[in-house]
Amino acid sequence: RGAIADKLRPVSRTVRLTFAGLALFFVLFPLTLQKPGLPQDLKSDEPAYYLMALSLVHDFDLRCETKDIQRLTNEFPYNNANNLILMTDDDWQTVWFGKPYLVSLLAAPAVAIFGADGFLAANMALLMLSIWMGALYLRRFNPDGLALLFSAGFFLLSNAFAYVFWIHTEVLCMASVTTCLYLAFTPAAIEVPIGRWGRFVRSFWNAASRPAWSGAAIIAGAYNKPILALLGLPALY
User: Fold this and answer.
1) Checking phi first, is residue 25 left (phi over 0); if not, alpha (psi -120 to 50) or beta?
2) DSSP 3-state assignment of 81?
3) Could you tell me which of 35, 110, 50, 118 has the C-alpha nearest to residue 84?
4) What pTM does this model have?
5) Which of 234, 204, 229 is nearest to 219 (CA)?
6) Helix or strand holding residue 110 (H, E)
7) In angstroms, what CA-CA distances link 77 with 41, 92, 211?
């Protein structure tokens, strides 16, 4: 019990402040870009993901209409937008975007304020969340600073960092898998609820509910890429 309690001690203040500064820099960095991505146009499935976010912000729907295309033209003038995937169920009388919309829904608030760069900032925030969960897992076996260093190195040196600058769903999928495995393999911190809100949060966020939250996390990834459900099997086991 003493060893477990030691592993659940609060993260050192130095490490928390270091990560906060690192995360703040990385999340704000995409907002300084003139246009996201290289080359500076929408590529692969980016048109659908970004137009879905714009449509959710401005129209509160997922229909593809002329005004949606005009918004894209206004933000990306003189650039191509190929591979826009659409679908219909009424012989093209009504046209819908044909990609999973979860990542667009999550990025919509940032897109409403910062446009396409806001989508990249949302991707970066998901990457930083993954780094933090990796550090929390590794600190069970290593000093806090070393755990953060190796978690940051693992994620920032992987191709996940490149996908931050694509308006795609890959970073969300990575965060989904990381969250699933973190909740499954890291014990819950032992905390005493403070006040009414603390008791309310603890009523659904506690050690007994962690398996359910772990399953919900992998569903977010499997919704975009069904094969990712297999990565939830170790947690299920």
Assistant:
1) alpha
2) strand
3) 50
4) 0.86
5) 229
6) helix 102-114
7) 9, 27, 47
**Percentages helix, strand, coil for the chain, rounded to the nearest 5?**
65, 5, 30
Which two structure tokens, joined as six digits, stand for 196?
């009414």
Instruction: Give the tokens for residue 3.
Output: 């060893």
Q: What are phi and psi of 63, to 5 degrees?
A: -85, 140
145-175 b/e with 16+ CB inside 10 Å = b?
A: eebbbebbeebeeeebeebbbbbbbbbbbbb
- Per-residue pLDDT reduced to its tens digit, 115-164: 889 999 999 999 999 999 999 999 989 998 999 999 999 998 888 888 99
Token pair for 195: 């006040």
For the record, the structure tokens of 188 come out as 């819950």
> For residue 86, what is the enclosing H or E element?
strand 86-87
* CA 168 vs CA 26, 58, 97, 207: distances in Å: 18, 20, 14, 33
C-beta of residue 56 within 8 angstroms of C-beta of residue 108: yes
